[in-house]
Amino acid sequence: MYTSIWLGIGLLAYFAGVAIAWQQFQSKIEEWEEYSNFPIIWTVKLAIAVGYFLKSLIWFYDLILDDEVTKQKTSSEH
Fold it and tell me: Does residue 67 register a pLDDT over 80?
């Protein structure tokens, strides 16, 4: 019983992070909107949107990686 509650909370937090990351990428995707009447540009925009969607699915990995890079920078400064 308790495991399902924590699993639900974890999934809710994960999907909230996905939604937040996807919102942050929307401005980068909309940059291509001006040229979307060309088929090649439309395809590129679609590929970029899929790439950003996949990147938003692994948002937690970006947080971990950024934290490690920050720790390495601060340790090399000292």
Answer: no
More confident residue, 42 or 19: 19
**Residue 1: is its pLDDT beyond 60?**
no
Dist. CA 8–CA 5, nearest whole Å:
5
Q: What is the mean pLDDT of residues 13-20?
A: 90
Query: In the 3-class helix/strand/coil scheme, how is the chain assigned residue by residue?
Result: CHHHHHHHHHHHHHHHHHHHHHHHHHHHHHCCHHHCCCHHHHHHHHHHHHHHHHHHHCHHHHHHHHHHHHHHHHHHHC
Quickly count: other Cβ atoms within 10 Å of residue 48's Cβ: 15
Q: Which amino acid is at 70?
A: T
**Which of 45, 17, 20 lies closest to 33 in space, CA to CA?**
45
Which residue is listed with tokens 């540009």?
Answer: 41
